[in-house]
Amino acid sequence: MLFEKIKSDILAHNSYIVGAGAEAAVIDPRRDCLVYAAVARREGMKITQIFETHKNEDYVIGSRELARPTGAEILHGAREEFGFGTGVREGETFSIGSLEIEVLETPGHTVESISLLLRDRSVSDDPLMVFSGDALFAGDVGRTDLAGENRRREASEMLHASLHQKILPLPDGTIVCPAHGAGSVCGGKISDREYTTIGYEKTTNELLALSKKEFVERKVNERLYEPPYFTVMRRLNKEGPPLIQNLPHLRPYSARDIRSLTDRGAQIVDIRSPTGFAGGHIPRTLNIWREGLPLYLGYFVNYEDPIVLVDDFNLDLDHVVRHFVRLGYDNIAGYLAGGFAAWFKQGETVERSGIWSPPDLAENLDDPSIYILDVRKIDHREEEGHIAGSHHIYVGHLEDHLDEIPEDKRIVVHCDVGYKGSIAASILRKHGFGNVTNLLGGTTGWKAANYPLVKEEEEKRALSAPSPM
Amino acid sequence: MLFEKIKSDILAHNSYIVGAGAEAAVIDPRRDCLVYAAVARREGMKITQIFETHKNEDYVIGSRELARPTGAEILHGAREEFGFGTGVREGETFSIGSLEIEVLETPGHTVESISLLLRDRSVSDDPLMVFSGDALFAGDVGRTDLAGENRRREASEMLHASLHQKILPLPDGTIVCPAHGAGSVCGGKISDREYTTIGYEKTTNELLALSKKEFVERKVNERLYEPPYFTVMRRLNKEGPPLIQNLPHLRPYSARDIRSLTDRGAQIVDIRSPTGFAGGHIPRTLNIWREGLPLYLGYFVNYEDPIVLVDDFNLDLDHVVRHFVRLGYDNIAGYLAGGFAAWFKQGETVERSGIWSPPDLAENLDDPSIYILDVRKIDHREEEGHIAGSHHIYVGHLEDHLDEIPEDKRIVVHCDVGYKGSIAASILRKHGFGNVTNLLGGTTGWKAANYPLVKEEEEKRALSAPSPM
Amino acid sequence: MLFEKIKSDILAHNSYIVGAGAEAAVIDPRRDCLVYAAVARREGMKITQIFETHKNEDYVIGSRELARPTGAEILHGAREEFGFGTGVREGETFSIGSLEIEVLETPGHTVESISLLLRDRSVSDDPLMVFSGDALFAGDVGRTDLAGENRRREASEMLHASLHQKILPLPDGTIVCPAHGAGSVCGGKISDREYTTIGYEKTTNELLALSKKEFVERKVNERLYEPPYFTVMRRLNKEGPPLIQNLPHLRPYSARDIRSLTDRGAQIVDIRSPTGFAGGHIPRTLNIWREGLPLYLGYFVNYEDPIVLVDDFNLDLDHVVRHFVRLGYDNIAGYLAGGFAAWFKQGETVERSGIWSPPDLAENLDDPSIYILDVRKIDHREEEGHIAGSHHIYVGHLEDHLDEIPEDKRIVVHCDVGYKGSIAASILRKHGFGNVTNLLGGTTGWKAANYPLVKEEEEKRALSAPSPM
Amino acid sequence: MLFEKIKSDILAHNSYIVGAGAEAAVIDPRRDCLVYAAVARREGMKITQIFETHKNEDYVIGSRELARPTGAEILHGAREEFGFGTGVREGETFSIGSLEIEVLETPGHTVESISLLLRDRSVSDDPLMVFSGDALFAGDVGRTDLAGENRRREASEMLHASLHQKILPLPDGTIVCPAHGAGSVCGGKISDREYTTIGYEKTTNELLALSKKEFVERKVNERLYEPPYFTVMRRLNKEGPPLIQNLPHLRPYSARDIRSLTDRGAQIVDIRSPTGFAGGHIPRTLNIWREGLPLYLGYFVNYEDPIVLVDDFNLDLDHVVRHFVRLGYDNIAGYLAGGFAAWFKQGETVERSGIWSPPDLAENLDDPSIYILDVRKIDHREEEGHIAGSHHIYVGHLEDHLDEIPEDKRIVVHCDVGYKGSIAASILRKHGFGNVTNLLGGTTGWKAANYPLVKEEEEKRALSAPSPM
C-alpha cells in the first residue's frame, strides 16, 4: 500500500496519495502537481482518482491540473455545483486496487465538504484512515466563519453534527489525515502533530469535549482573520482554476527595468530578512521575507499588476515561485537580476528604516515622541500580553487603518519575532511614514531579555489608579 | 513537531526523526545517514539523541556514523553489552523540546529490544506514538528464531509478554511506528500499511488474537529464512560498525580489468533484468537485478573479495551502492565502464541462458528431459501451490543443494515472477550446469496464462491413484 | 564574459550562450530551452538576442520557445522567409554588453545560412570566435545534399565560397564553434574535438585543402543518409515550431493498456539493450536502445500515433523524453508502468530473438541456411570491410528492402557493435521474419575475436577465382 | 575526445579533464574532486593520470584526493621535491587513448611550473591545446612575486623565457587553457574570456608585446596582494594535503552555543549581504558575503579555531562549505541553526552599523567629524580615482593598520560596490570602533550618481593651490 503525505510548506496544506496494486488516488492535490505523478511513477502506479474534500479558500486546487497529464477522474462533494469534476454523495465507494475509499458528507466548514474513509479490504472492514479535509484537524476543527457572519451559527451546528455523528464514531485507532497542519490560515490553533488518531483527538482536542451549545458558542465567537485573497480562491476553485502546465519562468529585470515597471504599477516584493530590508531597500517596496510569502501575500498583493522579486543573492527562486503559483498569482513576472546590489550599484535611491533591539525600546519606553504599534493577531496580544503603551493593528489590516497612526512620531512597530514587523514597516514606509523602526526579536526577544508584557486589564487598572503622591 | 519516516527502499527498514523546538532525535538510523542531518537542518534543529531499538540483524546500524557529525548521544537497551553508546532501562525518559520519549523494555525478538513511547507533554500525558522496533509490525510481530532453535520458545514467550503487557495496553489511538515494513526479511508477513495504530492492530493482527500458548506454538513453528549475512550484522552492530564517512566511490573497470579481477577472486554482480542476463552475460557471474540486491546479496556475496557491478547503461549506480553499504559490503569496488557492451565489443566470451514463457513450459511439461526447479520460499510454494512435477530448493539455499539437481537435464528454474529465477539460473550456470532456462513470469505469469498450480497433497494423491485405463 | 556550450547529447547539437555585463545572447538554442535561462540567471544576465545560424533539419529549433519566457529578439539569415523572427544581412552587428556579434552570410549548407563573428570590443577588433553553424565543423564541412540532388553542385560551390572567402580568412587564432559535433547526422565525419580554431582546421581539415573543383566533386559524390524526419523538421523550423512550454508528462500505462493501445496503432518503443530485447520482448515492438533514440527514431517512428516506451526499470525517463521532444515527437505519450516485468507477469505473450557471439557465427559461416545481413552505413562497410558472404542494407532503409531478404532462412543481422543490429532484428521480427539473430559485438567484436573482414574487391576476386580442386 | 573545463567559482580556478577511448586525464584538479570522477563515469572512461602544472598557492590541490578513489598516477614538474607523485621533465609524453600530452617546462611563476601540450595523434602532429598553468593567462601572465622580493627579477626573466621560447612559438591556432580566469588572486588583470588562443594572445595581450627588459621591469614593479593563507597552501601542496574523503558535515549550533563557542575563540563568519549585516549582527563577527569567501577568507580567518557561519535562511550551505574546503579550512564547524533570527529571538545583543547612500556622503563630505576610508586595491584607487579627502588602506591589510584610524570620528568606509566595505566595517566594529558606516554602492554607485572621483595628483594640486581670497 502506498501512502504519502505531500505538504506544501508554510501554507501548511496537506495532500495525500494512496495506492495499491497498480492504481493510486490523490486527495486535495496542490497546483504544482507533478510531485504526485512522480510518486506514482516510482511505484509503478497510475493515478485514477482525484478527490477534493472541499472547495478550498487558501490555495488554488490542483485537481484539474493533475487530471490533464494523468487522465484521472475528479470527485468532489455534490452539495455544491462545481465547474468541473463529478459530485459524490454519502456512502459512495471507490476502489483503488484492494483499497476502498468511502465518502462521508461532513458539511460545516463548507456545505459541500466531504471526508474520506480509507479501508484496506484485503485486511479488514475497519477503517484504517480518515481524510478529514477541513472538518477535523489535529487539536482543532475547521473554520465556520467563511460563509459569512449570518451563516456562522448554522455552519457551526453542521460541523458539530459532522464531527459527532460521522467522524468521532470511527474506531479510536483510525488515523486522521486532515487537509491542514499547524500554521495554516485555515485554523486558529491547529496543533503541529504530523499524524493523529480519532482516539488521540477524542482525549486531547478540547473542542471535541464541548457540548453542542458550548461548541457553537465558541465557534461563533472565534476571531480569525480572513485574507482578502480567499475570495479569489473560492471563485477559481469553484469554476476550475486556469491550467498552468508548469511553473512560470521568472524573467530577469535590470535596475533600470524595475524603475520603469514600478512606474507602470508593478508590485515589487522584497523577500529579504528584516535586517536586510532595514539596512537598505528600493523605495516603496513591500517586504515579505521568503518564508512568509504564503501567509501574507494574500493581504497585500493584487492579481493584476506584474510582481517582481528582490533578493540579495537570488537563491532558490524556483521554490519561491511556487508560493505565488499556489495562491494563484500567475502575474508573478520576474526578479531583479544581480540582486539588490544591482540596484545600489546604479546609484539608485536607497531607503533605510530603523531597527531597534529590546534594550533600545526599553530605554525609550517613556519617550512621548514614539508610537509603539503591535501588529500581531489580536488573540496573540491578548493571551501573551503586550508592551505597555503599545497600540494594536493587525498587520493584515494595516493599510486600512493608516489614519490611526500619527505621522509626526517615530513609529516603533513590532510583532512576536520581527518578520511581520518588517512587513508592517515596509507598508508604513510605502505610505510615507518617515520615521519607522522595527523591533528585532519582537515580543519573543523582549521577554527573553526580561522585559515585561502586560495584559489589557492590568494596564487599564494601572492607568486608572490614583497616581502615587 | 517534526516527524518523518525515512525508509530504506527494498530493505523495508524504517527509521524516524522526531523533534520539537530546536532539538531532534533519530530512531534506528541507517548507515548512509546524512539524510537525517539534512532534515534537521531544514527544520533548524539539532540532533541530540539517537536511539537503537535493538541490535539489528539485517543492516548495519547508523548510530555511530550519525553521532560523528552531530555529536548526538547514542542510546540502546541495557540488557546486552554494546561496544558503544549508553544502555537505557524501563521507564527512563528523554526530552526533545516539548516531546518526551519513554523507554519500554520489550524483549523477545532480541533480549535487549526496547520500544519507545512518544508523548507531547505540551498537549497531553497520553502517548501519541510508539516506536515498536521489531516487537510489533503492521500485521505481524518480530521473529523469535534468531537467537537459535533452543532459545526460540523462551524468546516467543518473552515477546508475548512484551506485546501484551507493554504495548497492547497503550490506548487504541496510539500510532505504531515499527522498524520494518512489508518485504523485510525481518518478518514473515509484515503488511504493507505505512502507518497503523494499536487499535487497528488489535482488531486486525491475527497474531495478537492468539492465546499465549497458541502464539508460542505459532512462533516456534514459523519457517523463516535467515540469510547468512545476519551473522556479520550481529557482530558489527554489537561492536559498533566501521565508520564510512560517506558513500564509497565506485571505480570504473575495463573489460580487460574484469578478466584479471575475476582471476583474483573478484565477485562480479550483474544487476540487469532476467532477459538482459539470459540474452548474454559474462561467464560465471551472479545475476541479482538491481532492486533485489538488499534481499539476496547476503546469501551469495562475501565480505572479502572486491565486488564489481555490471549493468547495461550504468544508470543511478549511486543509489545501487547504498544497498551494499547498508549491508556492510564495504568491499564494493567498482563497475564495468561502458556497460555490458564494453564486454562484448572486446570479443570476450558471452554466455547465454534460456528464457521460456509459460506456454513453452506447458508444452514441455511431460518431457522427461526437463527438471523443473521451484526456488520460491517454501511457504509461498505450499500456500499458492506449485507447477506439477516441480522440485523445490529455496533460491537462498541453492548453492548448498546443487548435488540434488541432475546435470544432464534442461533445468527449468522458476520463482513467482522471474527475477529470483534468474538469480538461480545464474548460480546454476556458474556451477557448470549447461542447460538452464528461466521461466519468465514465474507462477504469476503461469496462473495469468491460465495454467494450473497444484498443492502437495493433491499431487501425492494424483501420483498414488491408480492410473486410468 | 560568459561563454558556455550547451550540448544536446547524442544528437551532437551544439548551442552557445555568450554574454557580458548584464546581457546575453543564445546561438542555435534547442527546444528544451530552460537551460539557457538558468545559465543567464546564475550570471545575473538577461537574454536579449537569439540567433539561428540556419533552418536546421535534424532537430526542432528552440528560438521561439526561448523567446517566450525571455522576451528576446530572434534573428536569422534573411535569404529565406521564416514564419517568425527578423532576417539579418552580411555585416550587421549586435552588441551584447561589450561584446559584438557580426553577421557573415555563409550559404552552402542552406541558402540562408549565416555565421557569427564574436569580438570583445573592450579588448581588440580581432575576432575571438566564429559560430560557424553548419558551414565549418571540426574536421568536416556542412552537407550540401539536403536541398535536393539537382541543387547539390550549386550548394557545394556556394559552401566553398563561404568557407574560403568568409571563414578561412579569419585569423588562425579564432576559435571555431560549430553547430554540431561528432556523431551528428548533419555531417559525414565530424571530428570529436570539442573546440577547434581556424588555424588548426586549416592545417588538419582535409576538405579545406582541396581545390574548388576537388571540393565540389567530393561533396557532390558524398554518400550521406537522410532520415525521413528531416522533412518535418524543415517545415516546422521554417514556419516556427509549436510551443511546448515544458517537457511533456509521460503517462503510465498498464500491460493491458498497451495491448489496446497497440490495437489502435500506438508505437511501442523498447529502449532496452540488445540482450534485454533478445531475451524477451512484447511482440511487434521496435527496439532502439535509449542512447540511440536521437539518431534512429526519425527513420521508424511517425508523428501521429502515440508513442509508448518500454524499459526494464524505467530509470531516467525524464531525460529520455527530451530526445523525443528535440525531434518534434510531441506524440510521446507514456511508458509501461512497472517495466517489462509488468508485461510478462500478466502472462502476456513474450517473443524472443536470437543472440550470437562471434564464435557462433564463425562456426556457421558456411551454413547455407543462414543469411548474414550487414546494416551498417555503406561507407563504414566499404572502409572497414565486411564479413564474407554478408549482404548489405542500411538499418534506416531496412523497411523499404524487406523483399530482398529470404523468409525461410535464419537471418543473422549485424552492425558494428550490436545496437543497430538489434534495431534491425526488431524490425525483421515485426515484419514476420521468424528466425532472426543479432550478432553481439558486431564487426568490432568479430575483429577483436580475430575473425577476418574482407573488402568488396577481394570477395569478388575470391568468388570469381576458379575453385581449387 | 572528451574535453571539459571544471571551474571553481569565484576562486576562478580552472581545471580540465580530457580523454579519448576509455582513458582520461585531469589537469589541476580541485580538492572537492568527485566531479571529475562523475564526468569520467558519464563518458565510460577511467582517469589514469593527474597532472599538476605547479604547486598552487591559492587553493588546496586535489591530485592526492582524486588519486585515492581512481588509482590514477600523479605527475608534476620535477624541478622541486614534492611529498607525493612523480616528477616529469621537458619532452616527456603521456598517452590517453589517441591523445598525447607532452610536458613543457615553463618556470617563472614557480620554478617547477610546467605547461602541457595536447595533441590528437589520430588527427595531426600539431598541438590542439596548451594547458598553460600559471604561465600564460588570457590577457595576463603569471605572478613572479611569490618566491620573495629578492627572487622576483630572476623569476620574471625565467617567465619571459618560458613564454617566448616555449609557449608563443606554438601555432596561432593552439587553444590556450590557463589555470585561472578573471578575478583570481593569482593574476593582476586576467581577462574574462573563457577560451583563448596563441594567436589571439599574441595580438591582444600587451605583456607579450613588451621587450624582455620592459617585461621584467613591469613584473618587478607590479603591485599585487598576497593573502596570508598562501603560505599554508604552499606548504600543504608541497607535502601533500590531508585527505578529506568528502565534504565536511556542518553542525547546527544554537544561539546559546554560539555564545559559548565565541568565548572559546570560535570564528563567527556572517555570510549575509552588507545591508543585512548593517541592519543587525552578532557582536564582533566578521562579515564576508557568501560570494566573497574564496577571495577574502584567507586574510582574516585562521586555520585552528572552529568556524561557524551565520546566514539569514541557511540556503545552499553545501556550496558555501566548498569555499572553505578549497582553501584548506578544515576547521569549518557549523552554522547558526534557524539563521540570524535564532539570535535575536533569544533577546541576545544585536549590533548595528551604518549604511549611507552616495547622497548621504556627498552632503557630509566637508564634515570634519567623518573619516573616509577607501579599502579598494591601491591600483584600483589610482586608476579610477578616489573620493576627495578619503584615506586608503586595503581591506586585506586593515587589521595591521588600525592605529592609523581615528577612534573618535565616524568612519565612512567604502570600496567599489559595498561588499568589501562591509568586510572592513565588520573588522572596525570588531576592534571597537563605535561609529562605522559603509557606503552602499561604493565608488560605482558614487559615479553612477554623478559625484566626482579625483586622482591623487589633482588632489595634491588642489590642496597646494593658494586658497582664493
TrEMBL record, chains A, B, C, D:
Keywords, ordered alphabetically: Metal-binding
Domain annotation Rhodanese: ranges: 262-352, 366-455
Record carries keyword Metal-binding: yes
Pfam families assigned: Lactamase_B (PF00753), Rhodanese (PF00581)
Superkingdom per UniProt: Archaea
GO molecular function terms listed in the Swiss-Prot or TrEMBL record: metal ion binding; sulfur dioxygenase activity
Keyword Metal-binding applies: yes
Name assigned to this protein: MBL fold metallo-hydrolase
Xref: SUPFAM superfamilies: Metallo-hydrolase/oxidoreductase, Rhodanese/Cell cycle control phosphatase
SMART domains in the cross-refs: Lactamase_B (SM00849), RHOD (SM00450)
Gene Ontology biological process terms, A to Z: glutathione metabolic process; hydrogen sulfide metabolic process
